[in-house]
Design goal:
extended; mainly alpha; 7 helices; two-stranded parallel sheet
Length: 187
């Protein structure tokens, strides 16, 4: 199940979402009754606003103090921060401290309701108490390609990387056809 469907988020579901977020809603409480773990995959696409809404929903469903992170449920995040960023949301690692030339800027503007929720969600992410970093690439054994991916990921791509990537492009200029071996033998 996706996080959006669990939150009853989606097109044409605003009324349903508001009803489901009320304390005492039996369907909401039943859906969360036996939940002990939440697995959030592709965490790079989960933003602070989305995490704040999930936190509020779980606290409501579990009848928990809103200060109890995620209603006491364990959350396991999977993914890579360096992949796709959340759409119209701030990433989980967003830092709200504004700086100018390395100095903290004093902002007298009051935060919006959305920013307050995002800051609450950011506080949740700072409570993560266990991180496992996987460093071995399992999807390719090609060392040159692995090194290229790491350089591109860090914004350090080279001209040689570009040339290597060009060797993997199938197009008219390269005279490679999916109708020819070995490509036509793929099922």
């Amino acid at each position: 199940m996706t996080i959006h469907s669990f939150l009853s988020d989606g097109r044409n579901q605003k009324t349903k979402s508001k009803l489901m977020n009320r304390p005492g809603h039996m369907k909401l409480e039943n859906a969360w009754r036996f939940v002990e773990y939440i697995i959030l995959d592709e965490m790079s696409m989960v933003g602070l606003s989305l995490l704040a809404r999930l936190n509020k929903l779980v606290a409501t469903a579990k009848h928990c103090d809103p200060m109890t992170a995620m209603g006491g449920i364990n959350i396991i995040f999977f993914g890579d921060y360096n992949q796709n960023s959340p759409v119209f949301d701030k990433p989980l690692y967003h830092d709200f401290v504004e700086t100018t030339n390395g100095n903290v800027r004093n902002n007298t503007k009051l935060p919006s309701e959305n920013e307050i929720q995002q800051r609450s969600a950011r506080a949740l992410t700072l409570q993560i108490n266990c991180v496992v970093v996987l460093e071995q690439q399992m999807r390719t054994n090609d060392l040159a390609y692995q090194l290229l991916l790491n350089r591109v990921r860090n914004g350090e791509g080279t001209s040689e990387d570009w040339l290597l990537l060009r060797t993997r492009v199938i197009g008219l200029g390269l005279r490679i056809s999916l109708n020819d071996p070995p490509w036509n033998e793929v099922h």
